[in-house]
Amino acid sequence: MIAFTMGLLLTAALAFTSLALYNRNEKRLIGLRVRELGLVLTAVVPSIQTPLASAAELAAATHGSPQKFRAFMAPYVGPSRQFASASLWPLGTSKLAPTAAVGTAPVLATLPRQAQMFFARTEKAPTLKVTGILRSAHPSVGYGFTTAAHKGGFAVYGESQLPANRRSKLESNSAFSDLDYVLYLGHSRRAGDLLVTSLKHLPIRGRQASDVVPFGDSSFTIVAAPRGSLGGAFFKDLPWIIAIFGVLVALAAALLTDRLAQRRKQAETLAGVLDRAAAENRKMYAEQRSIAQTLQHALLPDALPEFNGLQVGARYIPAASGIDVGGDWYDVVAAEDHRVLLVIGDVSGHGLRAATTMASLRYAALAYAAQESRPGALLAKLSDFVTSGPHDYFATVLCVLIDVKDHRLTLASAGHIPPLLLDGDHARFVEFEVNVPIGVSRSSPFREATLPVAANSALIAFTDGLVERRGEPLDAGLARLRNAAIGQKLTLEQLLAKLAEDLASDYHHDDTALVGIQWQN
Amino acid sequence: MAELSGDRVAEVVIDTAVDGSGAPIITVSGELDISNAASLQSKVGSIITAERPERMIFDLSGLRFMDSAGIAVLIGAASKVDVVRLRNPSPIVRRVVELTGLSAVLPIES
Which of A153, A262, A314, B43 is 20 to 30 A from B107, alpha carbon to alpha carbon? Predict the structure, then answer.
């Protein structure tokens, strides 16, 4: 009887401790998840700021050319892109109005007083300014950027629309689908500052955590609460499992005198608990990776444009393991005179910082491409952009100008691995002078090379993750790529799929981007 | 975590010494890649902060493999130290330096 009572007491104590531990763990987890949400939001800043800043630079360089502005901003405007609307506003004029716009008409243009106050703010310093247009029939968030703090300059203004009922669920497959959240503009939790929420009714209830994320000259406040149990249902039920199990054990202990049997059982239970904990750990690790990948995908073009007479395609292959994302990127854009410009790059390092650096380099390259399509000159501008300020990274970038009509390629490389040129049964890596990577100070101008290519040629550009294998010379990886590509009677899409499958499937430890072009008959 | 990431960490050995003129010599042997480049980075960083050398030598005779993460460490050193020289790099390592367009930034000691 004493054993039974002792067992019950012990069980009660254990169940109680487990409940307390569960509560503490859940509190810690929700804090952690909100900080992750905050990090993802922080990482979105460059994808808003850099296109606007680049467009402002472009406007200053082209005296506010509406055509250049529209051509540059078009890829960022539209449903599920950064902005619903983008517009160019000359400052210091008597009547404030946009001279060029892409997408829907800016809501701010219908609110002269607010526009006046907002642009007075943007003139002060070249940083991102944020304003909420929350009481309108089309609730929106507006972002403004001006290059120089002088009169007669230009402000670039972008607007993102909020859902009219302010409700938006996080994607069910995202790493945050198990959270309810509320997002406010500014350091605020007032209903008037509400941006979006996943909840039908506010306020948010239960165990919760919040974080404030700086955003331009304003900030976002996120409040989130778990929908179920963050640590998994098993941990939620653990106190009950212990209680029930404990009663059984206590009964068993009272009935059986064989202490060895009891001990063995406890050991087995403990082993079971540890297994479950390990499984939960693996799940959380996979989620971390998915957050980083979501971010990476958000920073890359969702679809490549189409061109007459030229097929284009791309693949992004995340590393087989590891939670950090790489800083790989690519773009294929139209240039003047029916030419096409291909840019591929790789920022040194990994993680959120490499990804955000990648974003700003990518947008800078696109902005320079709108003014300058010669690859060597474009890389030189990008290099000056990076080395003129403090930086502790470098990036390899390959830039190829494709003359579709004349079958000609002009290439410039800043430390980037050479592309593979395919022409019927021949395949070779283009040999030309390689410049120093972007971010390394240079003493000579950036060199470029021009070569004529045969009809039906294809060019595959890639980042080093595709060919680098530990303990193997780089040339062996290059040979493997060449052998996989040579003599294949495949369409460009099929070839890219094959290369991604053959070369980047099992052991690659680095993210990989590959992009290809092929002349059409 | 090795089991979770399914990735082994490459083995690298880093030794430091000083040559007759007082310039640090950093000997890197084994395989240097993304999994362990951070250890070389911190070693090089602390030497640069502590000694502010004008000249730095990387002895790479025992380095069998290096990837772009390793290159990043060497570039970082070259941007802070006036003269950086590579000593006895293997053809594999030399090729990585060439392909990255860095032969002039990271010259081989003659």
Answer: B43
Chain A residues with CB inside 8 Å of B76's CB? Answer: 392
**Which CATH number is B2-99 given?**
3.30.750.24
Instruction: Calculate how close chain A gets to B72, using CA atoms only, in Å.
Output: 7
CB B106 within 8 A of CB B74: yes
Residue A214's pLDDT is what?
82
Our CA-based measurement puts residue B52 at a distance from the nearest CA of chain A, in whole angstroms, of 18
Kindly report whether the peptide bond that precedes residue A203 is cis, defined as omega within 30 degrees of 0.
Answer: yes
Which uninterrupted H or E stretch holds A30?
helix A2-61
Closest-CA residue of chain B to A350: B34
pLDDT tens string A460-511? 999 988 888 877 788 888 999 999 998 778 899 999 999 988 887 666 667 8
**Local confidence band at A312 (pLDDT 50, 70, 90 cut-offs):** very high
List alpha helices for A150-258, DSSP H. Answer: 233-255
Sequence ranges of the domains in chain B: 2-99
- Our CA-based measurement puts residue A438 at a distance from the nearest CA of chain B, in whole angstroms, of 11
| Arithmetic mean of pLDDT over chain B | 86
Q: Taking a C-beta distance cutoff of 8 angstroms, is the pair B71, B99 a contact?
A: no
CA-based nearest residue in chain A for residue B32: A470
Q: Does A418 touch chain B (CB under 8 A)?
A: yes
Cβ-contact B44, B73 below 8 angstroms: yes
* pLDDT(A16) > 60: yes
- Provide the 10 A C-beta neighbour count for residue A457: 18
Residue spans of the domains in chain A: they are 2-23+230-292, 47-161, 300-519
| pLDDT at residue A255, rounded to an integer | 56
For the beta carbon of residue B104, count every other beta carbon within 10 angstroms. 11
The answer to whether the CB atoms of A475 and B95 lie below 8 A apart is yes
Q: Which band of pLDDT confidence, cut at 50, 70 and 90, is reported for residue A10?
A: confident
| pLDDT tens digits, one per residue of A96-124 | 888 888 988 888 888 888 888 888 877 76
Q: Determine the pLDDT at residue B4.
A: 38
Q: pLDDT tens digits for B38-91?
A: 899 999 999 999 989 999 999 999 998 888 888 889 988 988 898 999 999 998
For residue A310, give Cα distances in angstroms to A306, A455, A457.
8, 11, 10
Q: What is the complex's ipTM, to 2 decimals?
A: 0.80
B92, with CB counted inside 10 A (0-12, 13-18, 19+), is middle
Angle of helix B68-80 relative to helix B91-99, nearest 10 degrees, comes to: 70
**Which residue stretches of A388-473 are H helix?**
none
Nearest to A122 by CA among A87, A101, A91: A91
Average pLDDT over residues A77-97: 83
**CATH no. of A47-161:** 3.30.450
The sign one gets for the Cα dihedral A360, A363, A365, A368 is negative
d(CA A391, CA A412): 23
pTM for the model:
0.65
Whether domain A300-519 has CATH 3.60.40.10: the reply is yes
